[in-house]
Amino acid sequence: MRAQNSAIPLAPIAVDERSALGPATGPSPVDARTGTLLAGLGVVTFSLTFPATVWGLDSFGPWSLVAFRGVLAALLAGGFLLALRVPVPDRRHWAGLAVVGGGVVVGFPLLTTLALRTSTSAHAAVVVGLLPLTTSVFAALRTGRRPSRTFWAAALAGAAVVLAFTVQQSGGALHTGDLYLFGALLVCAAGYTEGGRLAAVMPGWQVIGWALVLCLPLCAAGSAVAFAFEPVDLTARGLTGLLWVAAGSQFFGLYVWYRGMAGIGIARASQLQLAQPLLTLVWAVALLGEDLSPAAPAAAAGVLVCIAVTQRARA
Q: In this structure, what DSSP letter does residue 87 have?
């Protein structure tokens, strides 16, 4: 086996509650009950991303898996955009969409997939659990807003918990997989922050949809090159993993997440998102047969407490 564990990237945190849907091109808003169900479904979908990636690595190399999942997700997104006759964004928005694509469509999936060749799902779940805090920091820097001292204290505490856990699990030193994971945090936070900014002017699901379409040529070229150099051994588990990360994690999950957020707002949706790292640990045991060290759930719980504090501080 190439990897035994997997963690799942957290969903993006939008900047404005109006960002999930737009009145002109987005679907009609949902009620609070339906919104809660949809947002919860999005969290469950995201929590399965890393286990699905481990499954996909059974059949594909890391480069071909990431590139081809981008192709499939872009074709799905393009089909929805075409069917709904969504107008092409203004030219001034394409630079921001490129940042979203580079961080969410290419950077995060590639770096976490490379990390999961040597890191366990539980280990990655704890490290990537820091993503909401990292995104909040990027958003504060990007928008010029000044969060409270409580927010920054909780953010630093969460970072300290993750760093201590990583060093302890790595035997006192950071490994290559850890560096990939920390790099994934940075590029994904940048992509989520820019996506949140764009979501103020267009429906959030269209932001990820156009970012996927923008990355389609790169992903298609990457697939052609990767398949030429990386062996493919098709298995039912490998194909299932590929289809999930492409259709589930990278498109459907984001779609229902933004739709749900439109019904219940950012604050309530973010509270549902706090369960995501712990769900990943459950999937790591149930689907991958991983043995969790006592430090994994303890560290995950510590990160969740810090995230909860930052959410209250931001509110």
A: P
